[in-house]
Amino acid sequence: MKNRSKLIWALALLPWLVAGAIFCSAGRSVDHKINSKLVNEESQMGEEELFRNEENIIASASNQFAFDLYLNLKDSEGNIFFSPFSLSTAMAMTYEGAAGQTAQEIKQVFHYPQSLEVMREEFAGIINLINKKDKQYELHTANALWAQKGYPL
Question: Is 20 helix (H, G, I), strand (E, B) or coil?
Answer without folding.
Answer: helix
